[in-house]
Write a sequence for this structure.
């Protein structure tokens, strides 16, 4: 394949970032050749994602407004004749997975397990797979709520789709394959939101109540003269697995007390009518609050979709801000109660609110799984550089990222 053209880069990255993108992909080409030798290369990109509204709703059949972002994983790949998947992600050891020995790959063994899970799921779902080599690099922030793992999964799926399936796999197929790999090979009870947002590209409205419904939404903060900034507050020192698992488990407990399987089958009115009895039954006030968050948050997603259609930007901002307050105060995933002295999310939100109050514009919210990681800020474009400098004082250079909503999902560029 030919190296991507300037026009192809402009279509994905925009005119201002084309030169940087070209340099990144040339670096990929050189890295591949040094590691694997000369080959007829194809080139791929897979974005990270941002959640705009819909915090912790996908696992209980709720709704989410999410989008791909302009941070991405990029790759160069070619078929091999070894019957192996060989992937070198820059900065990490090369991983080799033999396709004839997937059952021998240990579970919960990091990236090697994830690749084996993707390979197994590809065959299970009726698609073709064979050996290939790939050289990858990424600028998606790791362990920070913008889905670096899903971005990786989706680029591997895009490579498999292009090299062996003639483009027959859809982004929904990618997402299900990525979810299978995480569920079975990582033993991680992930939903599909991260993979769907990375795979499809652009702002999308997701409804998880039944067979997943996806609607692409024409929207961008830049349309209104605003920017989105993600601040990485740092990974918490506590093991967050139990914190993350407790959120869906507590929501499921309330749903069960309502006689439902998932909270999407109930309404806020039903919950409030039976609130006292359910509270007495489950003896868990946090679970009750989290159920209120879910039912209110799902409605907020529908509300923001209508506000976007009406081009009512003040309403859009108000809903994002309300979502953030609900996550912090009702869902309660800003920090770990067991490690209450460490609250980087709370600190970042407080510092940001002080800045936004001073300029008289913008909103901020907790982003992603919570308990540690990132916050999201929406503010006027002319204030972006000043805000970045302000937050870098507290969280360090390179941890505050202005970014755009990107329209391209996980695809082959050339």
């Amino acid at each position: 394949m030919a190296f991507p053209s300037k026009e192809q880069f402009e279509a994905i990255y925009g005119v201002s970032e084309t030169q940087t993108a070209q340099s990144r992909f040339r670096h990929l080409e050189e890295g591949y050749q040094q590691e694997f030798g000369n080959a007829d290369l194809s080139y791929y990109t897979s974005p990270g994602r941002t959640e705009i509204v819909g915090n912790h709703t996908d696992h209980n059949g709720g709704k989410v407004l999410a989008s791909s972002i302009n941070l991405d994983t990029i790759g160069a790949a070619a078929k091999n004749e070894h019957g192996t998947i060989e992937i070198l992600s820059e900065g990490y050891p090369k991983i080799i997975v033999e396709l004839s020995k997937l059952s021998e790959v240990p579970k919960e063994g990091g990236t090697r397990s994830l690749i084996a899970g993707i390979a197994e799921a590809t065959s299970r779902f009726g698609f073709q797979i064979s050996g290939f080599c790939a050289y990858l690099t990424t600028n998606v922030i790791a362990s920070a709520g913008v889905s670096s793992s899903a971005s990786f999964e989706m680029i591997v799926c895009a490579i498999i789709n292009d090299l062996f399936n003639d483009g027959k796999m859809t982004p929904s197929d990618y997402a299900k394959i990525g979810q299978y790999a995480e569920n079975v090979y990582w033993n991680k009870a992930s939903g599909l939101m991260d993979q769907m947002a990375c795979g499809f590209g652009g702002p999308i409205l997701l409804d998880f109540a039944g067979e997943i419904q996806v609607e692409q939404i024409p929207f961008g903060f830049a349309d209104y003269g605003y920017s989105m900034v993600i601040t990485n507050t740092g990974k918490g020192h506590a093991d967050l697995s139990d914190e993350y698992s407790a959120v869906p488990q507590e929501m499921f407990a309330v749903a069960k007390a309502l006689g439902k399987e998932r909270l999407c089958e109930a309404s806020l009115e039903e919950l409030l009518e039976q609130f006292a009895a359910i509270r007495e039954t489950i003896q868990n006030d946090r679970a009750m609050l989290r159920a209120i968050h879910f039912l209110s948050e799902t409605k907020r997603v529908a509300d923001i979709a209508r506000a976007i259609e009406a081009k009512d930007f003040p309403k859009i901002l108000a809903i994002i801000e309300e979502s953030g307050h609900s996550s912090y105060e009702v869902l309660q995933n800003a920090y770990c109660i067991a490690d209450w002295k460490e609250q980087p999310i709370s600190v970042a939100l407080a510092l940001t609110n002080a800045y936004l109050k001073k300029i008289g514009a913008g909103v901020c919210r907790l982003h992603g799984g919570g308990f540690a990681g990132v916050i999201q800020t929406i503010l006027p474009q002319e204030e972006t550089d000043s805000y970045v400098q302000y937050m870098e004082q507290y969280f360090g250079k390179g941890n505050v990222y202005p970014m755009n909503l990107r329209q391209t999902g996980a695809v082959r560029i050339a």
Remarks:
- The longest strand covers residues 63-79.
- The domain at 6-218+407-412 is CATH 3.30.230.10 (Ribosomal Protein S5; domain 2).
